[in-house]
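hey m, so remember when u said the tokens were messed up on ur end? i reran from scratch. heres the input so u can diff it against urs
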Amino acid sequence: MNRKKIVLSGIRPTAGLHLGNILGAVENMVKLQNLDEYECYYFIADYHAATTNPAFSTIRENSLEVLADMISCGLNPEKSVIFRQSDIPELPQLHLIFSYLITVSELERNPVYKEQKQELHLNGNGLSSFLLYPVLQAADICLYKGAFIPVGKDQVPHIEITREIARRANTLCNREIFPLPEALLTEMPKIPGIDGRKMSKSYSNFIALSDSPEETKEKVFQMVTDVKKPRLSDPGHPDECNLYQLMKCYENGNTFVQIKEDCKEGKIGCRKVCKPLLSQVLNEALSEPRKIRNELINDNNGLENVLKKGAEKARNKALETVKEVRTALGFSVRIEDYCQE
């Protein structure tokens, strides 16, 4: 019987989920978990969250918040293996081995690294863990022998690094231990943040699931809109407007079509029509997930239990992989060293 292909994805718990995370990642993760052809491993990437700021106590608190957000948006622990990255002690072992297989110059050429380095103004002051982020990501993927990694186009370079590390690891081990993962390109819309840049926790320009309806409305009214429409009567450019880009992710009815036409003809303005409408649309869409989230967030024991069960399933897979690698490299393998307490 053919085994299901493994899909793997992670979310960094630098803060709770925002609309960019939900629309760009979580909704697709939910779709994949509901397909019979895949076995889905979804993890809370707390090690990754520390690559720029190792505030582990805060990250731990954020991890439970992110888990509550994930479940409230449709991820099901009964259908997917949902776990916390740091709960898998085999991961650092594979990460260390992989770090021997790539050079500093290769990591520095990573376009994602160069872009974030510039955006965060690190100027040589970034932690070594930030540079090694793709190596840890490769270990995340290969530890569970992930076959498909759902990403947007901007993350494809990381998958290419993982494929190259997997090739080198297979050569080092003199056997095909790791499949070469493929990027599962998804239609991840670029969700604009309040300031017009891509919505990101790093830029503090996001609308979070945890925001109240009042906070959501306040943030929407702060959003940068159509800079080419200085006056109400001027023709608008909805395809270039941040409000419109976010609105079309949620509102697909006749109202949405009419708003676009009225904007082009200069009949409506952003502040009096579009911002109130977007606030309403967002709060209606987030109402049910927020209700579920509020119930989950008050049950830390229940959330920890979800992570514990997920880690048990993930460790079974991780242990098999690490034993296979250690055997191939000639390291000792003692079962008792890897058993859970």
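this time it looks ok to me. The CA atoms of residues 259 and 274 lie 8 Å apart. if urs says something different then somethings off w ur setup not the seq
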